[in-house]
Amino acid sequence: MAEDSLITVRELKVSFQTDEGVIKAVDNVSFDIKPGETLGVVGESGCGKSVTSLTIMNMLPKPAGKIDNGSIIFSTSNGDSIDITKLDPRSREMRSLRGSEISMIFQEPMSSLTPVYTIGRQIVESLLMEEEMTKEIAREKALEMLELVGIVPAEQRFREYPHQFSGGMRQRAMIAMALCRSPRLLIADEPTTALDVTIEAQILDLLKDMKDRLKMALMIITHDLGVIGEMADRVVVMYMGKIVERASCVDIFYRAAHPYTKGLLQSIPVIGRKERLHTIKGSVPGQFELPEGCLFHPRCPKAFDKCLAQEPPEFRVGEDHGAKCWLYEKVGEMR
Known about the structure:
CATH topology of the largest domain: Rossmann fold
Helix content: 25-40%
Largest sheet: 9 strands, mixed
Number of domains: 2
CATH superfamily of the largest domain: P-loop containing nucleotide triphosphate hydrolases
Oligomer: single chain
């Protein structure tokens, strides 16, 4: 395990068995998250962001989903180092990790909340997973969490159902449920999807505030580089199940190295800019039509012969900054 890391993911490979064949959803992914740090994971839809987070939570859909290789070492609050890939998803040890050590906010709050139970009951059930917790204490804690995330009056909203909440309030309820047991790592998977910009800003401010209050680490998954710039300390950029660039947030925005990262940044609308918005040419290839060499080369404006023949390793292009691109073979060194 990397020194001082809360979680260390190494050479993770995840595949899904389908009727058409095997899909490599995550391919040789490695990263670390330190205590109190925010890691941003960015990339187009289908690049493996959500599958990586579900694997960390040990919630891959079975039997289709399978971890083919790698390790996920988590440092618990009592000082133990546990490899999550070795745990049964239904084991007592894994269930005790979820919620109390690692928690997750899912993409769609309406589909993540049970429509036939009140918001309060769902938060209480999360709290009752702690063996020493009584229903009375759990109710008081749930009311406290609702107030903490700005759902007021808490007593009234505690008894209401998800359909009585707006989209932003449902997301706040999901945050309350995820944080009610004070996890050390929170995974937020597209936490602002389908929210308008005003509510999005409120949710991001709430996440930053709760992160500071609980002194937890945050892994935020998004395709929105604006969210990354607002929230992240470090960033990994994913494409077709692989990490193609990793760097500090500042380096990603001001010293981006990989052509894919540069394309994403150039696609951000800028107020006052009159020229046509940049787009990355082509489209993501199908899983059963993967090109040889660098997976991005059919869409890359900088591609040359070697890109078509060999997959690039990760080259060091700056301090704690790596990119998988043959353009840096001479100026960088392999990490």
